[in-house]
Design brief:
Blueprint (H helix, E strand, L loop, with lengths): L13 E4 L2 E8 L2 E9 L12 E7 L1 E6 L2 E6 L3 E4 L8 E4 L3 E8 L1
Antiparallel strand pairs: 1-2, 2-3, 3-9, 4-7, 4-9, 5-6, 5-8
């Protein structure tokens, strides 16, 4: 892999949970992930992690402790970490592809 280019095409998909697969590149304590979610993806618990990303394809609804917001292709996502930003996502289309940047 070149120093500045992440070649997702050459990476194998990993499947950490039902309905989700991802490819990840990590360097210097930061991670860039290409993630694909299917309709069968279900978050059992509230997520309190922070997320920064861009939706490439598809649509999802994020429930912020009772306040729901829909995100779609072209939208950016910026969710700070913490209890006050807890959330659960639900895929509204057959698939959802997103790029996420994580520390």
């Amino acid at each position: 892999m070149a120093e500045h280019k992440v070649d997702f095409e050459s990476m194998e998909w990993e499947s950490p949970a039902a309905g989700v697969k991802c490819k990840a590149y990590e360097q210097g304590g930061r991670k860039l992930r290409l993630v694909e979610f299917g309709r069968e993806f279900v978050e059992a618990d509230w997520c309190r992690k922070g997320h920064i990303g861009h939706i490439l394809e598809g649509q999802m609804e994020i429930d912020f402790d009772g306040e729901k917001e829909v995100f779609g292709s072209g939208d950016g996502v910026f969710i700070p970490a913490g209890e006050e930003h807890k959330h659960k996502g639900r895929v509204l289309t057959d698939t959802l592809k997103v790029i996420l940047v994580e520390d």
